[in-house]
User: Fold this.
Amino acid sequence: IHDTHNDVFYFANDWLTSFYNSPLENFRKRTKPRKYDLYEVFCAVLYVLKTGCQWRQVPGDFPEWRSVYNYYKIWSTKAEPTADSLLEQVLKKLSLLGELTKDVQL
Assistant:
């Protein structure tokens, strides 16, 4: 049996691990330790994209909505107008982009 959820977890975990060392992550100031696990933030972003809920309505199981939204802004920023954002690249690799972002503009 092929478990897609595990595939998504492992892919996202690998992506987030490489993100720790990316220029985008290193751009932010390191004044204090990270408060939330990036995988939890990523799951919260997927939740918002999938359900279409407002950022303030992110369930309490996820990190604080402001943090989730701030990471969403960082991950969805495009370096160039024709380039894919970091979030778009990941969603395409997960084959979820069309399904998750029908009505969401990144």
